[in-house]
Specification:
The complex is a heterodimer.
Chain A lengths: L8 E5 L4 E6 L8 E7 L6 E6 L4 E2 L4 E4 L5 E6 L8 E8 L14 E6 L1
Parallel strand pairs in A: 1-9
Antiparallel strand pairs in A: 2-7, 3-4, 3-8, 5-6, 6-7, 8-9
Chain B lengths: L4 E3 L2 E4 L5 E6 L6 E8 L3 E9 L2 E4 L8 E7 L2 E6 L8 E8 L9 E2 L3 E5 L1
Parallel strand pairs in B: 2-11
Antiparallel strand pairs in B: 1-3, 3-8, 4-5, 4-9, 5-6, 7-8, 9-10, 9-11
Chain lengths: 112, 115
């Protein structure tokens, strides 16, 4: 079973920031938070990951709470092409015997 | 840089036939993963290779499924004999695993339909 909880769906207006929450209250000290998205009929696309510090790249920002029990993925200026299913995954990685477990994710709809 | 390459993109075949799916991981990656995605069960890990050796095959559904990685640049997932319930999208992913928690990168998948 996935170790994360995400809302089933969200809407966001084009041009606005999309804030996607994820709860991972049982996260362990060596587990990272990964975010992927899947646009219809394509393979999951890596977005960002982090351990405890906030992270930012060209696609998004990841905000992890101080207790690490939840996180938020932020798409600063959502476009129609950001419409996808977004997956939050918690894992220490296969080096530690832990592979990815994908839950149902959040279906984000960016509206014009 | 080339990403993970899977072939074929689509496969339609009749029940009982052998099906072979192919994957070329990203050059330099030492881990390869096969996943299956269906509407009912979502995205599931089937098998994980590290340095060409199968490490975890607990997700392989039954003996009709087999996977090989003869070298660092090629892997196959074979289903023999195929059944209609094997219809799904099969994804291959690769990553570098060396204690640095690098992400997995996915191919665009093979959409398999068994009639």
């Amino acid at each position: 079973d996935a170790k994360t909880t995400q809302p089933t769906s969200m809407d966001c207006a084009e041009g606005r920031a999309a804030n996607l929450p994820c709860n991972h209250s049982t996260i362990s000290g060596n587990e990272y938070v990964y975010w992927y998205r899947q646009i219809h009929s394509q393979g999951p696309q890596y977005i960002i990951h982090g351990l405890k510090n906030n992270e930012t790249n060209e696609m998004a920002s990841l905000i992890i709470t101080e207790d690490r029990k939840s996180s938020t993925l932020i798409l600063p200026h959502a476009t129609l092409r950001d419409t996808a299913v977004y997956y939050c995954i918690v894992s220490s990685g296969p080096d530690y015997g832990q592979n990815f477990v994908f839950g149902p994710g959040t279906r984000l709809s960016v509206l014009p | 840089d080339a990403g993970v390459i899977q072939s074929p993109r689509h496969e339609v075949t009749e029940m009982g036939q052998e099906v072979t799916l192919r994957c070329k991981p990203i050059s330099g990656h030492n881990s390869l993963f096969w996943y299956r995605q269906t509407m009912m069960r979502g995205l599931e890990l089937l098998i994980y290779f590290n340095n060409n050796v199968p490490i975890d095959d607990s997700g392989m559904p039954e003996d009709r499924f087999s996977a090989k990685m003869p070298n660092a640049s090629f892997s196959t997932l074979k289903i023999q004999p195929s059944e209609p319930r094997d219809s799904a999208v099969y994804f291959c992913a690769s990553s570098w695993t060396g204690g640095s928690n690098q992400p997995q990168h996915f191919g665009d998948g093979t959409r398999l339909s068994i009639l």
